[in-house]
Amino acid sequence: MSRAAARWILIGALGALLVLLVGLIAVQGLRTGFSAMQLLAATLFVLPIAGALIGLLWYGRTLGGAVAGRTRAEAAAHASGESFRTVASTMADGIITIDDRSRIQYVNEAAERMFGYTRDELIGNELTMIMPESFRDRLQAGIQRYLTTGKRKLSWESLELPGHQKDGKEFPLEISIGEHTLGDEHVLTGVVRDITDRKRAEETLAESEAKFRRLVASAPDGIFVVNTQGGILDVNPAGEALIGRDRGQIVGHKLAEFIPEERVSVMDRYLTDRLAGHRTTELYDETWRGVGGHKINVQLTSQVVHPPEEKPYLVVSVRNVTNLQEMQRKLLESERWASMGRLASFVAHEINTPLTNISLLTASISRRVSDAEVQERLKKITIQGRIAASITQELLKFSRPGAINPVETNLTDLVRTAVDQSDMFRKPGVVVETDLGKEPVVCTLDPLRIHEVFVNLIKNAYEATPNGRVKIRLEDRGPLVAITVSDTGTGIPPDVQRRLFEAFFTTKKKGEGTGLGLAISRNFVATHGGDITVSSEVGRGSTFTVLLPKQAPSPRRGP
Q1: Percent of the chain with pLDDT over 90
Q2: What proportions of the chain, in percent to the nearest 5, are helix, strand and coil?
Q3: What whole-number distance in Å separates Cα of residue 206 and Cα of residue 266?
Q4: N or C: which end of the chain has fewer CB within 10 A?
């Protein structure tokens, strides 16, 4: 029987006795009446029993309240424990609690599955049993150092450590550790997460990024990663080579620094439009500063990248198309020259026949007529015929630029001869200077064609210089030879410079030139694998530069 039941039986018995005594006293009093002494005696007899009953009732109530409170507290604690166990058992992460001797006190179901041990196999054993053997001593020493000194070397949040399963397999863990005190004992609780899948994914991103970087590094086009402010975040080796700077001199700088000033605003609009998604055309032709600050023609393509929770950036691919465009220009020019050459050849041959007939008829009439006036007119006809014949000869030269016969030639002597032959065109107020060097420069070229080029350029310089100086200079540049013809004449306006080498373009008066001299000269030089360039300033003169390889291409026949 419990104490509470015995207590309530005693209270009941005392209560019944008290009621019985009070009843007897009341009956007796009604029969005989109460004297003062009888009433006092009855009261003294009943009071102890009533006091005992009241005391028992008060004690029972107090004890019952305490018991009820303890019962409620125990129930709450039990409910809290059940709630914790329910939460712990349903968590995907493992939960492990150890005491101050590193012995496992609690594990949840996730920890059992994670390490392959049952709860009974883990509880009471040291934590080191679920850690790789090579790591156990360090782990144990770290825990003991903390419990002894309160100091720890590593953060206890998201700590990555290796785990050891029952079958001997190691796997990566992420652990967050908390602590609390139970009595005088330190208790550590760790939330353990298996990060095998995450590590595998990270390795696959890292491998993918490495492949991407290798691809970018080996790309033939320059690749620039540009932020929304136009700053360069990254560049590949081809990009470094494109502008002639290493990565440290590019990353962190603005893209505008590598673009000619007059093109910066256009480039800024392009980047803004691309980042805003307004520009749908990706291919974009632009001019950049290349190696040494020289302008180069480039084509750009770009892709906007929108990383999660970060600002977008632009991946710009830049291709140097300077050489390609130059080749295209030369191809178009070659096709144009070929077409014009065929036309010139046709016209020259067609004109030669009537010119020949005119010459024959004029000679025949001249022999039969003695009239002086008629003879004078026939002479003028003959002169005009010769002029027309010279034009057809120029047209034939223009139509067959490829017909060269290269032989070993002293270029120095060839230039000197051209200077002497052109002297008939020099005006009295013009001084000629030559700087041809002391040593002969031997080249393989067609001397007739190149001689005609020099005569034409020197003649033009004399005609453009009423007073002043004409200078002819020869410079040996290894595999190339440069011959410059400079004058201090009237100079050439920029719009005329652009058309100087066009066939049939001339600034001379009608009848003074065919407009074929410079066109033919460029053709002859191009056939030798060289080029002619011009620089001029109005009022200060002009300079024509002929670049010739010392070894001309193999002979070939033109159309």
Answers
A1: 11
A2: 55, 25, 25
A3: 37
A4: N
